[in-house]
Design goal:
Length: 491
């Protein structure tokens, strides 16, 4: 039997063929030397790898080396590896010649099945909703025969509630937090030493908030299905300054480290509906995130060409400024952006709506380079990987591919943020104002973005209405000039 090389995002039992298979884990320091990762992400990844090695005991070789190549030189046996999760890692593994690459694990829809589906659609835009239907039927999730349970594939019209602003939080118990142990203490001491040696991190250190073992992840999953899932759907699109996690599962890093197999969570959610009375709109939304969205963006990363990550059809050429790169929330006055950046800085995590409607939206409006943002999201979030951030930024928020997976740019003005959050009440800017000292940077930025890109998005039917509204604005040139003047300074 070959020794199975486990990358840091392949840590669950489903990445081994059986319980006795010999394993190899290589902790490469050069990964952290090359780019500044969030300190808590570095902690999470190293802690998860070391915990997995401790679980496997003599079955695993755990090498701490400068590079992966240094580690491989110490191993003479035949190796195999499940399909790595980045093009760079796949290329490296394939160049070794002696490492057999197996099909990917940790996702539901196989790459070959996805390619067959995508080839069969014959559309220029691959749509999540059609893939999601295909996946529900293919894997028999929430279906009765060929029909969706509840009569519709999407029950989103029953979700999308604004946040409970008066209560200030969603009425669910907090997710169980992991308890740090000796391995965490060793990781923290190592990272402190690396910093003294000159390796740079961004963000702040803090207590570990995310699971590093399968057991910790299973505890959080069970708690979510029992206590939080029911409230997930209604408030899924909303944000609260006083409740960062709301009813989100906080399990994305566990799926992306490979601690949980997504199908066990999908079946668990289905059971919560069928046996335990969890509301279908919440269950369906959770299933759509995992079986639909997560598998969709993973497979698109491989189905599209390598150049997708660097696409930039809206000519966003400004470099991401230093204050953003360093996650310096203190220089920002805009309440929404300041709070969300503070969440990234202090936790390495905010849920996906602030990522899209605050961070992605702001960067899109300013014309910041999508390739730099993919890299920033990858490094700064505990669950960030190139395969998911490429879709989030290039495909979705930045519309940098002119619609290979989305039908329009993810641009929105302050009025949307005002409706879906409690941020605007405590902000020095006015969400309705687009011109002047107190004009909301998101509202002014929205019109400025449309003005700058009107010729590039003119033929997009979903942008017809916003462009018509833009044409009726008498002050649009002044708004655009104001936003050019504001540039990439913190708002
Ligand atoms: Fe954000 Fe604008 Fe609202 Fe301030 S007014 S919180 S900048 S959307």
């Amino acid at each position: 039997m070959s020794r199975r090389w486990l990358f840091a995002d392949q840590l669950g039992p489903h990445f081994l063929d059986d319980r006795r298979q010999p394993a190899l884990l290589i902790e490469s320091k050069s990964v952290f030397r090359r780019r500044a990762f969030h300190r808590q992400k570095a902690h999470l990844v190293l802690s998860a790898m070391r915990h997995r090695a401790a679980e496997l005991g003599d079955q695993a070789r755990y090498l701490r080396t400068e590079t992966y190549a240094d580690g491989l030189r110490q191993v003479s046996e035949p190796l195999d590896v499940c399909h790595p999760t980045s093009r760079r890692a796949l290329d490296f593994v394939q160049r070794q010649g002696r490492v057999t690459v197996l099909p990917a694990r940790g996702f539901v829809t196989a790459m070959t099945d996805f390619a067959d589906w995508a080839d069969g659609t014959r559309r220029s835009t691959l749509r999540l909703d059609t893939f999601y239907r295909f996946a529900r039927l293919r894997h028999e999730v929430l279906v009765e025969g060929t029909d969706p349970v509840g009569g519709r594939w999407s029950l989103d019209s029953q979700n999308r509630r604004p946040p409970p602003k008066k209560a200030g939080r969603v009425a669910v118990p907090n997710p169980p937090m992991p308890r740090e142990d000796d391995i965490d203490a060793e990781v923290r001491a190592d990272l402190d030493r690396w910093e003294r040696e000159g390796i740079r991190f961004v963000g702040r250190d803090g207590p570990r908030r995310f699971p590093v073992t399968r057991r910790e992840a299973q505890i959080r999953l069970r708690h979510f299905l029992r206590h939080r899932l029911s409230a997930f759907g209604p408030y899924e699109d909303a944000m609260l300054s006083t409740d960062a996690s709301m009813a989100h599962s906080m399990l994305s890093s566990s799926f992306n480290l490979g601690l949980l197999d997504p199908m066990e969570a999908i079946r668990g959610a289905e059971k919560a509906y069928r046996a335990d009375g969890a509301p279908l709109p919440s269950v369906e939304k959770f299933v759509r995130q995992l079986l639909g969205w997560r598998d969709f963006v993973w497979n698109l990363y491989w189905y599209f060409d390598a150049g997708w990550r660097d696409s930039n059809a809206l000519a966003a050429r400004r470099t991401v400024p230093q204050w953003w790169q360093e996650i310096d929330a203190d220089v920002v006055r805009a309440h929404c952006l300041s709070d969300v950046l503070d969440g990234v800085r202090s936790r390495g995590w905010v849920h996906h709506i602030p990522r899209l409607t605050v961070l992605g939206n702001y960067a899109l409006q300013r014309g910041w380079r999508p390739d730099e943002l993919v890299d920033w999201f990858h490094r700064s979030f505990v669950d960030g990987y190139e395969w998911v951030m490429t879709a989030n930024v290039a495909g979705m928020s930045h519309f940098a591919d002119l619609g290979r997976m989305s039908t329009k740019p993810y641009a929105s003005a302050g009025s949307h943020l005002d409706r879906m959050s409690d941020y605007c009440g405590g902000c020095p800017y006015d969400p309705k104002a687009r011109l002047g000292e107190n004009s909301c940077p998101f509202t002014a930025g929205y019109w400025s973005f449309l003005h700058r890109n009107k010729d590039r998005i003119r033929d997009n039917p979903r942008m017809a209405r916003p462009l018509k509204q833009l044409a009726q604005l008498a002050d649009v040139e002044a708004v655009a000039a104001q936003e050019r003047q504001r540039g990439s300074d913190p708002p």
